[in-house]
Write a structure and sequence with these properties.
16% strand; alpha+beta; 287 residues; six-stranded antiparallel sheet
């Protein structure tokens, strides 16, 4: 069944209706859960944002135990981790402060707990987050696993999907551009899509993830049917350069759902940029 994790690919400035209507719509990250379970278990922003980061960690471990064990696709685990980092960022004084708190406090707490849920959380943080967080979480996960704690079935593949096709499309005036990059865990593809607003200096207006079959064909056909839309296939290196420039330019969401999307997918977007860079021939840009 086709699945989507964000708004359908779209341009906000005079996007033809045909393109809007042809592509998949918003869905739930935790697609295998009921609406009630998703409301109770995955709305981490509402649960954790009002309190100090360190005071949320018991709840985070409970959240991990209740959610990560139900997943069977690695990208769902990455999405959960990215969403969690975005939610916790609301309680931290800057992204660096959050990553430091996660590295110094949550990683040791998860290692001490040494449960399947805490190990799953460590596996996620080993691929999503700052370099220091990834390193600390990966080392802690290795020690917990060595104690005989069972890994989730997706752990071995986590963070290393194969880079697939990439494309972009835009309105003919060049005001906005939708960049799509596909990745695949075995026979399970997913697309990471970024709406770039060139009217705001090339900043990111929206981000979403889709798992819909035939996304490229539908997008290309919709673009061909409308003279106001330009579609082009690009290679991974070009996609990486475009994404890197957009991340460097900053963010400009102006609708509540766009703010939620950008915050929830920010960590995943950085992780996918690293994959695009490593699949090309040029070294990553200096931080």
């Amino acid at each position: 069944m086709d699945e989507a994790y964000g708004p359908a690919p779209r341009l906000l400035c005079a996007l033809p209706g045909a393109l809007l209507g042809a592509l998949p719509g918003r869905g739930s990250i935790l697609h295998d859960m009921s609406a009630d379970e998703h409301q109770a278990d995955s709305d981490v922003a509402r649960i954790f944002a009002p309190v100090a980061v360190e005071d949320t960690f018991a709840g985070v471990l409970t959240e991990a135990a209740g959610v990560l064990g139900q997943l069977d696709d690695p990208v769902d685990a990455e999405l959960w981790g990215s969403d969690l980092i975005g939610a916790l960022a609301a309680s931290a004084v800057g992204q660096a402060s959050l990553m430091d708190a996660l590295t110094r406090s949550l990683v040791p707490a998860a290692e001490t707990a040494a449960t399947p849920g805490s190990l799953a959380l460590l596996r996620v943080f080993a691929v999503v987050g700052s370099p220091a967080l990834r390193a600390a979480a990966g080392q802690a996960a290795g020690r917990v696993s060595a104690r005989g704690v069972a890994d989730p079935p997706w752990a071995a593949r986590l963070g290393s999907p194969q880079v697939g096709e990439c494309w972009h499309y835009a309105d003919v005036g060049g005001r906005q551009e939708s960049l799509t990059m596909t990745f695949c865990y075995g026979d399970r593809p997913h697309a990471v899509c970024v709406l770039i607003d060139h009217g705001c200096g090339g900043k990111i207006r929206d981000v979403w993830v889709a798992k819909a079959a035939g996304l490229r064909a539908e997008t290309e056909q919709a673009a061909q049917d409308d003279p106001h839309v330009l579609f082009e296939m690009i290679d991974a290196a070009d996609a990486g350069r475009k994404l890197e420039a957009a991340i460097g330019a900053g963010e400009c969401p102006d609708q509540p759902d766009q703010v939620d999307d950008v915050v929830a997918h920010r960590a995943l977007l950085h992780a996918r940029l690293e994959l695009l860079v490593s699949s090309g021939t040029r070294p990553p840009a200096a931080p």
